[in-house]
Fold Bifunctional chorismate mutase/prephenate dehydratase.
Amino acid sequence: MTDNAQPTPSLDAELKPLRDRIDTLDQTIIQLLNERAGVAMEVGEVKKRYHAPAFRPEREAEVLRKIVAGNPGPLRGDSLHFIYREIMSACRALENTTRVAFLGPVGTFSEAAAFAAFGKSVEGQPCASIDEVFRATEAGTADFGVVPVENSTEGVVNRTLDLLLHTPLRISGEVEIPVHHNLMTRSGNMDGVTRICAHAQALAQCATWLSTHYPEIERTPVASNAEAARMARDDATVAGVASAAAATNFGVHIVARNIQDDPHNSTRFAVIGTLDTAPSGRDQTSLVVSTPNVPGAVHKLLEPLARNEVSMTRFESRPNRTRVGTGVWTYYFYIDIEGHQRDPKVAAALAELRELCAFFKVLGSYPLT
């Protein structure tokens, strides 16, 4: 080295001041998070005096929208959305433990949807069936339930629609999550496998892939994908189709990843409970109606919406099962519209619809995420 040569800086020397700054920022963030938690606890005390619920979907939706809208970067908006969902979940847990029922066991997409809706600082209650999710929520052993409503590949989940028809519960939120299916076995290969098990919806969503790769192996529907993963763990002749989380939970090995036929496969879930959600500024209302079996009846359903400038985003029909065998087929229509039922235009449209329908039920108004 000559007299004028400068020493080459080391990696650690260059990183140290940056790491020191991160450590200082982390301490500031921790302090601010705890200050926020302290204010949340004060909010909880006020709510208790007025017997108000700890979870307000419209308020949390407003907070998340403001966070994303005011984000200067470089963090992505969806990253901040996830971070603040967990912050609010942790703060809410200081007020009260939220109990959430979902289709179990642990490791299902329904559990993932529950965490996406409420964050992970909740008490999850896995249930054996969609019916049990409704029963637990109606009985009050769970504060909320999370149930699948519609899959982008296979369409509506008929059992959920049937149960929504008569339940006293209301929809207070929705969440959509990507659904990636994986084939898994105890050994990590398909040697000796005689059955492929999964929920019926999952088998349908992977039908083309399974027919291409394993056309000779029997497919057996089971209660849930997580149950299929458990069966694969306990029986070397069974392959399960489930999430990567289920494979980890049950200690099985993934043979093939992302075997769903649609790479953009996703499922929409509804949050159900006894809560009436207030307007958040960007909402959706779900309802179910039926009409007399006369010509033009369905067209008449749409007129009040158009007249009051209310947009319809979903329209599904289900047979009226009480009329099966009578020779006369009637239908229930499940409709989603933009706006909250308290919005003037929506309220006017719903009032007109109520007069036209033989059966009319608002399932709930809730924030759009």
Notes: The first helix runs from residue 11 to 49. The chain is about 40% helix and 25% strand. The mean pLDDT is 92.
